[in-house]
Specification:
Largest sheet: none
Structural class: mainly alpha
Helix content: over 70%
Radius of gyration: 21 Å
Distance between the termini: 85 Å
Length: 211
């Protein structure tokens, strides 16, 4: 008996998901997961709504209905990453001793671990955010929440001084650079965490010294 021929479309898209009926919530989850897979495999430049529809086995209007535009999709990916990072950091801080060493260690580990868990795709997504004022604001809003959490967790060790936004912004920049370096294998995760720990503790001690 002759074997059935594989269609050209299927051969070209081995990652394509067969079309199936899903609830809106389940479909949204499927599209987000496929978007991450696409960015991981081909980079953020390859992420388009049309390509996502093709790989997910749905029509373009379905994807447009969920995200509206490519900017909307990128924003959704970043917000998911940001929510995951926030949850990880909050859980770690809640269970940590109230010491500067412990809090700084928890913050450093949570930030690096979350980036590494997402893999190399998150730097690409974040880089794509810089191409749009709207998306850049999404990123800045997320960063503001991270800085607020860090300030709240670390202020008790600053001897009554306010940890400045400039200091927090500097520490956040270091966290991003170190995490991305670890994600790309330039340094190890342990090195990234250790360096970020030193940056955070130095920031708090500098603030305390100015009190």
């Amino acid at each position: 008996m002759a074997k059935a021929k594989t269609s050209g479309a299927a051969a070209k898209n081995p990652r394509q998901t067969p079309r199936q009926r899903l609830s809106r919530e389940a479909r949204h989850r499927q599209l987000i997961d496929m978007a991450w897979r696409l960015v991981r495999a081909d980079g953020s430049d390859a992420l388009t709504l049309g390509r996502l529809a093709e790989l997910s086995g749905v029509t373009k209007p379905v994807v447009y209905d969920h995200f509206g535009t490519r900017e909307g999709l990128l924003a959704a990916l970043y917000r998911e990453f940001d929510a995951r990072q926030t949850a990880l950091m909050d859980a770690a801080l809640a269970g940590s001793p109230a010491t500067l060493k412990s809090r700084a260690s928890v913050i450093a580990a949570a930030y690096v671990d979350c980036v590494l868990a997402q893999g190399r795709e998150i730097p690409g997504v974040i880089a794509a955010l810089a191409g749009s004022p709207t998306l850049e604001q999404v990123k800045r809003d997320g960063e503001a929440l991270v800085m607020a959490r860090c300030r709240a967790a670390l202020s008790p060790f600053a001897k009554g001084a306010t940890i400045s936004t400039a200091s927090l912004r500097g520490a956040l920049g270091a966290a991003e650079a170190l995490s991305y370096a670890a994600a790309h294998g330039e340094i190890t995760a342990a090195q990234a965490k250790d360096e970020l720990f030193e940056t955070i503790t130095a920031m708090v001690k500098r603030s305390a010294a100015s009190a």
